[in-house]
Every structure is written in structure tokens, then in C-alpha cells.
Amino acid sequence: MFKTLFKRQTQDRHVQALYALAVDQARQPDFYTRLGVADRIDARFELYTLHVLLLFVRLKQDGERGADLSQKLFDAYVSALDNVLRELGVGDVSVGKKMRKLGEALYGRMSAYEKALRAGDHEGLQASIARNVFESEDAAAGAALARYTIDSHAQLARQSSAAVEKAPDWAKIAA
Q: If DSSP codes are grouped into helix, strand and coil, which group holds residue 106?
């Protein structure tokens, strides 16, 4: 009984640490200063989603353990979104509705980005990023962040699972 309890707590800490690495990267000032991402809650949501997705896609490549870890990472992100809503003062009755809306947005973003990354559809990724992150129909608005995303995806793919879990090698943020 105690072995299971302590093992679960260790796994939870591991997943939370991995989630924190994605959040730390998404908070890098260069996204806002060099790439022009607006410093608003919705734009931060977009960057968090993008970074969680990059880890999610990489981890899924590692068989059953990776699929399990990627699902736990996704669950940690959803739980964090729920906590943020509550901290912002959203009432218990409204949290469910807001979480459903956020969940739909999250699923839509992750599906579009993952599909484009897997297919090598750089134009599609750029257009999705422009629309979602920069609220622009001009695909060129998402060019630099799309390049960063593609480069990060490639760098993470070259890393071992253990290295990704401890210190993901993100691409350089460049305009």
C-alpha cells in the first residue's frame, strides 16, 4: 500500500516538474519582445498550449511509457487551467462551462498544430499560429513562431527521453 502511495507522489512530482519546464519556456520574455506575442492571458494560454504540445508529441514517440507520461502532462495542464480559473474568481457553477470552452480550444489548437507538425505542413502551422496566437488572418504574422515551433520539434526529437524529461532542448527564439 505505501509503495503505491509513494510511487504515485513521485510520478506526480515528475509530471509537475515537466509541466513547469514547458511553462518556464513559454514565459521567456523573447516571445513577447522579439516575436511580438501580446502579453495577455489569452496569448500566454496559446504559448503554454504550444509548449505542452511540443512535449506531448515528443513523449508519445516513446511507446507505452511515453504515451502514459504525455497523457499525465496533458492532465496536469488541464488541472492548471482549472486552478487559474478559480484563482481569477470564476465561480464553481461557471468553471465547468469555462473549462469546456477552454478544453475545446485546447483540443483544437493541439490537433491543428500536431497535424501540421507531423505532416511537415509549415504553411498550415504558420497560418494556425497567426490566427490563434496573433489573432491575424495574415499567415506571415506567425512565421517566426512557426519556425521556432518546427525547430523545437526537431530538437526535441533528437533528444533522448530522459533528456527531454529533465531539460528539454528548445530552439532559440529568433525574429
A: helix
Torsion sign over Cα 122, 155, 24, 173: negative
Q: Judge contact between 46 and 31, C-beta under 8 A.
A: no
Phi, psi of 47 (to 5 degrees): -70, -40
Which three cell numbers, joined as nine digits, stand for 25?
519556456
Q: What is the pLDDT of residues 116-173, one digit of tens each?
A: 999 999 999 999 999 999 999 999 999 999 999 999 999 999 999 999 999 999 999 9
**pTM (two decimals):** 0.86
Question: Residue 42's closest CA among 75, 81, 95, 76?
Answer: 81
CA atoms within 13 A on the CB side of 151: 12
CA 70/CA 53 separation, integer angstroms = 9
